[in-house]
Amino acid sequence: MRVVVADDALLTREGIVHLLAGAGVDVVAEVEDADALLREIASRAPDAAVVDIRMPPTHTDEGLVAAQRIRDDYPDVAVLVLSQYLEPSYAMRLLEAHPEKVGYLLKERVFAAAVLVDALRRVDEGETVVDPTIVSRLFGRHRDNDPLAALSAREHEVLALVAEGRSNKAIGTQLHLADRTVEAHITQIFLKLGVDSSPDSHRRVLAVLTFLRR
Question: What Cα–Cα distance (Å) separates residue 85 from each residue in 25, 34, 54, 162?
Fold first, then answer.
């Protein structure tokens, strides 16, 4: 996999590059701002980009805007967005615009090489990856007219793992369920959320978006 890394903090950027290189990932460029990121994406055509949300000049959402631009202009390039803070609204902005080949992780999690590489692999394969901390926080919220109210407790558990980007097999392993049982739960989730008319990969994304909007 060929990857561009964008983060204005030198030590963080070099740490990510070191972890990726150690895992056999080809880091073709490392940059410190969104403009340089977009130039490298255009010239090097990588498989994926690892992008910090807050970069110069304002350190607000330049990385997020750049990530959306990449998904607009280079649909084959996956994007893994990193944040130092728990910001579900930023995850929503990214996923609603481009619900496939994107991921949102907290920086504290990516310094485990296995987590970072696994997330990159999954977004490169077209999946959606949302940090488990965000999933947990959102499940703790209470809303009137909650679209997930119709789900059973087990279906809530399954959907939370779908939101993290887990495969059916991984969900079954974590919850000690047979593959066919996981498939049955996911089918019921799609039906109850009213997302049963799209291809399976897109239905998973729609279910995640319903979860995030609650």
Answer: 26, 19, 10, 22
Q: Are residues 15 and 46 part of one domain?
A: yes
Give tens-digit pLDDT for 33-74: 999 999 999 999 999 999 999 898 888 889 999 999 999 999
Say yes or no: 20 and 120 in one domain.
yes
Return left, alpha or beta for 158; rule: phi > 0 is left, psi -120 to 50 is alpha, else beta.
alpha
pLDDT under 50 in the chain at which residues? none
Domain range for residue 71? Answer: 2-129
The predicted model scores a pTM of 0.74
Measure the CA angle with vertex 200, ends 190 and 202; round to 5°: 90
- Residue at 83 is within a domain: yes
CATH code at position 17: 3.40.50.2300
Over the stretch 143-157, which tens digit does the pLDDT of each residue have? 566 777 888 989 988
Q: Looking at the domain assignment, is residue 135 inside a domain?
A: no
- Write the CA distances from 6 to 12, 119, 191, integer angstroms: 10, 16, 40
